[in-house]
Amino acid sequence: MGYAIRALREDDPEVISEAFSAIGWNKPVSQYEKYLAEQRAGVRDVLVATVDEEYAGYVTVRWESPYQPFDGIPEIQDFNVLPKFRRRGIGTALMDAAEALVAERSDVVAIGVGLYADYGTAQRMYVRRGYIPDGRGILYNLEQVPPGEMVRNDDDAILMFSKSLV
After folding, report:
1. Which residue from 3, 74, 80, 150 has the fewest beta carbons nearer than 10 Å?
2. How far apart, in whole angstroms, are the C-alpha atoms of residue 74 and residue 21?
């Protein structure tokens, strides 16, 4: 299996959106067009994995985390590998590439991870890779959830992690 990792290109948004649509995920073309614009502006970099020229997955690096306690720390965001390409090392290769990119500018990288079972593989991967929770507990829409408060366990409920790259 020959895989490659490269920057997001102008012809990628429709291909990526269609690939996710085929598995029932709602990831509109506009999301990737926004990523292209942010990449051009230097706000975000997007790494795309292909296997034998077929789209397989991507990860983004937002150069300044929107999470206030991580002010100025780059954050890995929106990491996805299509199910048919999982367990082949592509996710690891994408994370390696993202961390190497961040290491060119920062000694620390951040990442957020969802709390429900669909994120279980990612949760384990991040811990194995040396990411440590920031200790501030559950966030919802990047706001700390006070003790006793109930929140919906959806993609906006997360824990934030960081990792030293030195």
Report:
1. 150
2. 29
Domains of the chain, by residue range, sit at: 3-164
Structure tokens at 103: 């290491």
CATH superfamily of 3-164: Gcn5-related N-acetyltransferase (GNAT) (3.40.630.30)
Dihedral angle, C-alpha 49, 22, 24, 122, nearest 10 ° = -20
| Sequence letter at residue 165 | L
Neighbouring-strand partners of residue 143: 140
Q: Pull the structure tokens for residue 50.
A: 């292909």
Rg of the chain taking only CA atoms, in angstroms: 16
Stated pTM of the model: 0.91
Cα–Cα–Cα angle for 69, 74, 137, rounded to 5 degrees: 35
Of all residues in the chain, what percent carry a pLDDT higher than 70? 99
